[in-house]
Design a protein that fits this description.
With 470 residues, the chain is of the alpha/beta class. Helices cover 31% and strands 22% of the residues. The protein contains 15 helices and 23 strands.
């Protein structure tokens, strides 16, 4: 099996390392054939048995045979799994003596690669044979790793991570992921930040009985949404007992006998401190690029962001593409990542001719009720010099809201005067998370306000209100 074929084979299996119980296991003495070099065969078997390895998976057998036959192999481990590959193969590699075959071990993060390199060095006295690199980065060069993965292109899609707070006591803060994994809800919770995560988690925790405080550095919560609609939503926060401190910059966190104390400074008010049992990072996320050795792959980045052209292709290394948070070209939303992936796939298959199209991407904060937005804000439309009319109203008396006893319900729709194009739509209230998609479709595909007014929607539904919003 050549290197390229083996790489494809071994990657496809290691992606399912967590589900390998169902894969075929073969006794070592039966799996490793002795048709090339019987003495070497016995050394391999005895070494495996010394490591208490009595059976192997089929892809491990293929790897051992490839090394034994003098072929270079690549072991790509997309998670901290695949230990049998990491430990068995170095042993085999070590006992091959002076043969020219080498194995390159690729890991998803620099820290894991460095950790594994130390462990491999302990197994293999000859450190020249230990080769590690990063899985997901650009292929290592020959002089750096000894062999080159045969991929023609690389896609960087590591996702996002919480932005560093850069304050004393930052290690006492948990991520939003850790919050979702809590087995028990603490009594007192502080959320640092005032965007999507803070708004959604505060509603969730407060409704479950926790005392919640939001510390937001900006002048208001949910800065990515229309300020009028955010104002209509704020009574819901107050009703839930959520304490909101805006203009508050967290400066440090300390552990006390009573839990955690969060200190914040304010521009136009005295500094404050809040005691909590749990402090949650809700201050935003950025591309998770720190673990990637971008310089080794000649992948240009500036201020923590990849430098890409309009095709999501690296400006410095045309073999490298990016999608989602790593690309940072569109809104940081899940549908954007999927859209980017389709664009990159098309460019890989057909050449760099496809561009992402971020028109009409809806955004929702899943508070209760939800607040949603798509297209331009009023400020953005004014800055572009567009002439438009604004249809806006708080309408809790509309039947859609009254039948669900929802007191927060309203809209703001921007319509271009000359063309009746929908420039932007902003909703708050019941069904906002669904109705916003109709406005997204209209913006993306040129459906005008007149078209929507003339459309008959099922009644009573949230969509049946669309015509009255125009």
């Amino acid at each position: 099996m050549d290197t390229a074929s083996f790489l494809r084979h071994i990657q496809s299996l290691l992606w399912y390392e967590g589900q390998m119980a169902h894969l075929e296991q073969i006794p070592s003495r039966q799996a490793i054939t002795a048709d090339v070099d019987p003495p070497l065969h016995e050394r391999i078997i005895s070494t495996l048995e010394a490591q208490a390895v009595t059976s192997l998976y089929r892809h491990q057998v293929d790897a051992i045979h490839a090394l034994r036959d003098g072929k270079n192999i690549i072991v790509a481990t997309p998670a901290a799994s695949g230990k049998s590959m990491c430990y068995n193969l170095p042993v085999i590699e070590a006992i091959l003596g002076d043969r020219s075959a080498r194995a390159l071990y690729l890991y998803p993060t620099k820290a894991l690669a460095q950790d594994q390199e130390k462990k491999l060095a302990a197994l293999i006295p000859d450190e020249r044979k230990v080769r590690t690199g990063l899985y997901g980065g650009a292929p290592p060069t020959n002089d750096r790793a000894g062999i080159r993965p045969p991929a023609r292109h690389t896609l960087l899609a590591p996702g996002g991570r919480p932005v560093p707070l850069g304050i004393p006591g930052e290690d006492l803060v948990v991520t939003s992921d850790a919050f979702m994994e809590l087995e028990r809800l603490p009594r007192r919770i502080v959320l640092i930040g005032g965007g999507y995560v803070a708004a959604e988690f505060s509603h969730l925790a407060a409704r479950a009985g926790a005392e919640v405080t939001i510390l937001q550095r900006s002048a208001r919560l949910l800065p990515h949404f229309d300020p009028d609609l955010v104002g209509w939503l704020m009574p819901r926060f107050h009703e839930l007992g959520i304490a909101m401190e805006t203009g508050a910059t967290v400066t440090r966190i300390e552990r006390t006998d009573d839990g955690l104390r969060v200190h914040a400074s304010r521009r136009d008010a005295p500094d404050l401190s809040v005691t909590a049992d749990l402090v949650v990072h809700a201050a935003g996320r950025g591309p998770d690029l720190d673990a990637l050795d971008l310089a080794a792959g000649d992948v240009a980045a500036r201020d923590g962001r990849l430098q890409l052209n309009e095709h999501l292709q690296s400006v410095s290394n045309p073999r490298v593409y990016a999608a989602g948070d790593a690309a940072g070209m569109g809104p940081p939303l899940t549908p954007v990542s999927s859209h980017d992936a389709k664009v990159v796939a098309a460019n890989l298959l057909e050449g760099p001719s496809h561009r992402p199209d971020y028109r009409g991407v809806p955004s929702v904060a899943f508070t209760v009720p939800a607040i949603a937005s798509v297209g331009l804000s009023e400020d953005e439309a004014h800055r572009r010099g567009l002439k438009f009319q604004v249809n806006a109203a708080s309408t809790p008396n509309w039947f859609t809201a009254r039948r669900l006893a929802e007191r927060v319900y309203g809209h703001k729709v921007l319509i271009e005067e000359a063309t009746e194009r929908i420039l932007g739509a902003h909703l708050v209230g019941t069904h906002a998370e669904e109705v916003i998609n109709l406005f997204g479709l209209a913006i993306r595909h040129g459906v005008t306000a007149a078209d929507l007014r003339s459309t008959m929607f099922a009644y009573p539904t949230g969509a049946s209100d669309v015509g009255y919003m125009l």
